[in-house]
């Protein structure tokens, strides 16, 4: 029997959306993520059928993503509504699968088994769906993956070193499911178990933050240029300041330096001339814009130039932003002298390079770490016109890659937030949005390697496979019941 009025159900779904919104930047009230799904679960699993449950999930998703990603209007205009709806559909799918499990008559009176299955399935299926929508399908976008809500929670965030950001997402949703069971059945045991597990995990994470040898590698000085002028003279002047020119590593933002097709050597010589006097290994974000009617119309890459002016390598961006960089040709694996995406040896260390959107995906930095990178470097473009929420949310994702790889990460962003992040995900230094200048600081070259980078990364793909099997099984259950 359904006990909750349909209007109350809709209110509960709205409360879940509000809690999710507050969990993420710019609010960053991260503890709310651990209870955010409870109202939605109470409402959706009380629904008389899967369709009603899916509608509630979609309603929560549309509110959550529509408000949190309202800045998409500045980029796509009214088409942003379509993107919000697509995001909402994934939440609707998750709720539909959970409704089917909750109402699965095949389990009969096996109440304890049903509870365990529900708590586990809640997290595993969420991760399978989240990993698919973030990393696999054609509209790849990892924005607001649930685990990113925990970036400020240093102890719990260390889970990323075990199972990555998606493992943390699974844990959050499973804890929500356990709390839901306590509320639904008025039993304290599920909630106590969840809190006890989180306490143990937090104690382990706290110990890791004190024991990890973040500063035992080779010390290097870094200079991160933050400027959106796209003016070579200004960027060069910023790079030749007294402290900046003596840094071991100098990084310019993405798209800093436009190049005409076929004139690479001419522009390289120009850069060498402009940066004369710098003692830094320079990573210069550059782009080639071809004729509009040619097949390969645009390239987005970074040159790595030694202090003596020698070209050490080039990294091409591997993940174009869907619909924003539709003219961009993804990275060419046949580049000489260093094929992307391999780390590049330099006087400043072995660099694991990423460009902007590449860092939003776990595989690039992980592969760089496994191939011997000693530090993750990032050229980034977040146009100031996209607004503060976009900048907050994007910079909030970077620490996960540091924890997953066990490496320092340095990020030069055009209008903010430029960051120096240690392997525990702690932001050691940053430059605020809309400011122009150079962020200088210290990083360390380390030997990469975490459980996640070696083994734990398979968790999310396995969850994706499990979700596919669950979809097949639940479709079969519908046919049996009909």
Report mean pLDDT, rounded to a whole number: 92
Please provide the count of β strands.
Answer: 13
The number of helical elements comes to 16
Low-pLDDT stretches are 333-339, 478-482
What letter string, H or E per element, gives the SSE order?
HHHHHHHHHEHEEHEEEEEHEHHEEEEHH
Task: Describe the structure in your own words.
The protein is an alpha/beta fold and about 475 residues long. About 45% of the residues lie in helices and about 15% in strands. The protein has 16 helices and 13 strands. β8, α12 (about 360-370) and β9 form a beta-alpha-beta unit. α6 (about 110-135) packs across α8 (about 160-185), α8 (about 160-185) packs antiparallel against α9 and α12 (about 360-370) packs parallel to α14 (about 400-405). The chain is elongated and about 75 Å long. The protein starts with 5 loop residues before the first helix and ends with a helix. Residues about 335-340 and about 480 have low confidence and may be disordered.
């Amino acid at each position: 029997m359904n006990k909750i009025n349909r209007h109350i159900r809709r209110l509960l779904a709205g409360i879940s959306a509000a809690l999710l919104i507050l969990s993420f930047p710019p609010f960053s009230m991260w503890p709310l993520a651990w209870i955010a799904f409870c109202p939605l679960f109470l409402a959706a699993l009380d629904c008389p059928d899967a369709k009603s449950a899916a509608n509630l999930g979609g309603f929560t998703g549309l509110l959550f993503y529509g408000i949190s990603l309202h800045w998409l209007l500045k980029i796509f205009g009214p088409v942003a509504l379509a993107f919000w709806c697509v995001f909402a559909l994934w939440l609707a799918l998750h709720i539909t699968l959970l409704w089917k499990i909750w109402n699965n008559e095949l389990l009969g009176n096996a109440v304890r088994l049903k509870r365990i299955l529900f708590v586990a399935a809640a997290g595993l299926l969420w991760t399978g769906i989240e990993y698919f929508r973030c990393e696999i399908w054609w509209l790849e976008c990892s924005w607001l993956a649930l685990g990113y809500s925990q970036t400020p929670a240093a102890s719990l965030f260390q889970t990323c070193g075990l199972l990555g950001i998606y493992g943390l997402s699974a844990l959050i949703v499973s804890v929500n499911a356990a709390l839901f069971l306590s509320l639904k059945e008025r039993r304290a045991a599920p909630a106590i178990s969840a809190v006890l597990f989180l306490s143990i995990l937090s104690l382990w994470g706290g110990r890791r933050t004190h024991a990890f040898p973040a500063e035992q590698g080779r010390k290097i000085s870094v200079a991160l240029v933050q400027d959106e002028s796209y003016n070579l003279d200004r960027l060069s002047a910023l790079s030749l300041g007294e402290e900046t020119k003596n840094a071991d590593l100098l990084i310019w933002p993405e798209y800093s330096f436009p190049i005409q097709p076929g004139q690479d050597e001419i522009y390289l010589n120009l850069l060498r001339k402009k940066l004369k006097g710098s003692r830094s290994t320079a990573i210069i974000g550059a782009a080639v814009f071809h004729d509009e009617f040619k097949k390969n119309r645009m390239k987005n890459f970074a040159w790595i130039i030694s202090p003596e002016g020698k070209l050490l390598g080039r990294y091409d961006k591997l993940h174009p932003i869907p619909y924003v960089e539709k003219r961009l040709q993804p990275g060419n694996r046949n580049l000489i002298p260093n094929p992307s995406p391999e780390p590049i040896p330099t006087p400043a260390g072995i660099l694991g390079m990423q460009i902007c959107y590449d860092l939003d995906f776990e595989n690039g930095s992980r592969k760089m770490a496994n191939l011997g990178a000693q530090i993750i470097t990032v050229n980034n473009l977040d146009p100031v016109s996209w607004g503060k929420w976009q900048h907050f949310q994007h910079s909030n994702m970077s620490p996960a890659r540091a924890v997953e790889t066990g490496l320092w990460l340095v990020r030069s962003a055009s209008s903010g937030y430029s960051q120096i992040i240690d392997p525990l995900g702690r932001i050691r230094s940053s430059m605020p949005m809309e400011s122009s200048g150079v962020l200088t600081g210290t990083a360390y070259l380390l030997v990469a390697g975490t459980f996640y980078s070696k083994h734990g990364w398979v968790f999310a793909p396995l969850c994706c496979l499990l979700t596919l099997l669950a979809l097949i099984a639940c479709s079969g259950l519908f046919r049996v019941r009909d």
